[in-house]
Amino acid sequence: VEVKIEVVIPEKERSKEEMSPNGKASPLIYKVNGTARHYHLEEHPIASNPYHNPKDVVEASVCHVKDLENGQMREVDLGCGKALLIKESGEFHAVGHKCPHYGAPLVKGVLSKGRVRCPWHGACFSISTGDIEDFPGLDSLPRFQVKIEKEKVYIRASKQALQTQRRTKMMAKCISLSNYNLSSTNVLIIGAGAAGLVCAETLRQEGFSDRIVMCTMDRHLPYDRPKLSKSMDSHPEQIALRPKEFFCTYDIEVLTEMQVAAVDVKSKIAVFKDGFKMEYNKLLIATGNTPKTLSCKGKEVENVFNIRTPEDANHVVKLATSKNVVIVGASFLGMEVAAYLAERAHSVSLVELEHVPFKKFFGERVGRAVMKMFENNRVKFYMQTEVSELREQEGKLKEVVLKSGKVLRADVCVVGVGAVPATGFLKQSGINIDSKGFIVVNKMMQTNIPGVFAAGDAVIFPLALRNNKKVNVPHWQMAHMHGRIAALNMLAHGTEISTVPYLWTAMFGKSIRYAGHGEGFDDVVIQGDLDELKFVAFYTKSDEVVAVASINYDPIVSKVAEVLAAGRTIRKRDVDVLSFRTGDMSWLTGKGS
């Protein structure tokens, strides 16, 4: 028996500047003052023959058909690139071998019930279509057709697909925008982060061909915000989620440096700060959060930063090089910034109210292990205290005074003491907001107002994993899924959110992966070696595992995420020392409770 695999990919862009139905090209241009020029670009048709250039096709024998058992995956090399060959339920499938998000090798991921989950950050892809099913990331995998002939496995693939290892799903074209009133849109998306962008893309992928407008206070098109603290010297174009041409191609209009000041839900009008008004039919609010600032004496001095934009991050790196840095708050942002600057700055000091970093999130034992790693990399901690004063010299920061009485030399200060939902403009709107400022939504990301949806860091929503308890989950992955669910329900699909939260952080070359929702955990079961930073931590509430974290233990977090995503319960007894010593992982393979 032979297995043959053919690549199915969309047709290449015919031209960067396509023509509108009337034959006139109109490129994307948007002005800050609210005046918009529209554009129209044709949808790229699905090609009848995926191989336009025979020279771009490669075919190679990669293995025997019996080399793979059910439930196995294998990376196979075609000479000019690799594919991921999968056998499940007696059928062969083949897709790209790298996760399009950050390039993780999917062969090291988790195969379960028709999809493969990335071992690094938890993105999931259908093995039969290559489509992305859970996030982070925007692109799908290229899918390769499989044929069985004789007893060898052959793969026939496009060299381009093997090299790019990603596929953008086909999207609908927009009807001629010349018919639209400048001040009206079918869908208005407030916020241009992951939630807003995924919402817009999902609408187009589902065939929505009406007008979509995104607006953002930022000066940039949507970018990879987690990199602001993990890779601080990245320039905006390096971390852009999509290039400018993408928004032109798929008729997603973006208003930059535009702030919505109020929303009139009865008239369906958004009022911008500069007075411009825009009518909408459906509204997504995905404004994220606003970082808290210090309230101490001297808070106005120069060189004190919240990391909110690429310019903030770049400026901090420049000022911190060979200088003294003080970071206030051992949050994810604070710790990542400390790790990034440790080798660049003369000194890095971290001030925190708790006695251990990450105590509420990872627990005390994991927090201490992480703290030790930082101390071994020259980061000095000042715990159980806070800032009482920022002192300046000639208007610029000179010293940070702590309530403990300690005075720290400081040329630059980064503040990471939490954030609040950016929802102040909605207070008089009638949209349901809780006492902390979070927008309340249901499982379909709908607010209490018909046609108004909300997503991302600014919402609380029912988390299926925790018996539909309404929670706030400010994770990058979750924002993606919120945006997708909102888009599907704008189109009346009736889709409910059921994803498992998944996050990661990277510090000093070590990645902590985390899945679940551990809020309120009452015990932590740790397997492995904390001192060696090779461990798994299971967070339990009563007898149930509610979250898991690991360092150097891939793909355990992705495995647990798949178990939780299937709606199965992991009991505390399942993760005891004996099960790890004996290698009994039946609870991860569908045989547990």
From TrEMBL:
Ranges for domain Rieske: 60-155
What is its subcellular localisation? Mitochondrion
Could you tell me the Gene Ontology terms of the biological process aspect for this record?
A: execution phase of apoptosis
User: What PANTHER family would the database entry show?
Assistant: APOPTOSIS-INDUCING FACTOR 1, APOPTOSIS-INDUCING FACTOR 3
Protein function: Induces apoptosis through a caspase dependent pathway. Reduces mitochondrial membrane potential.
Q: Which InterPro entries does this entry report, sorted A to Z?
A: FAD-oxidoreductase/Apoptosis, FAD/NAD-bd_sf, FAD/NAD-binding_dom, FAD/NAD-linked_Rdtase_dimer_sf, Reductase_C, Rieske_2Fe-2S, Rieske_2Fe-2S_sf
Family under the similarity heading: Belongs to the FAD-dependent oxidoreductase family.
Where is coiled-coil annotated? none
MF GO annotations? 2 iron, 2 sulfur cluster binding; metal ion binding; oxidoreductase activity, acting on NAD(P)H
Q: Which Pfam families match?
A: Pyr_redox_2, Reductase_C, Rieske
Q: Which GO terms describe its cellular component?
A: mitochondrion
Designated name of the protein: Apoptosis-inducing factor 3
Q: Which UniProt keywords apply?
A: 2Fe-2S, Apoptosis, Electron transport, FAD, Flavoprotein, Iron, Iron-sulfur, Metal-binding, Mitochondrion, Oxidoreductase, Transport
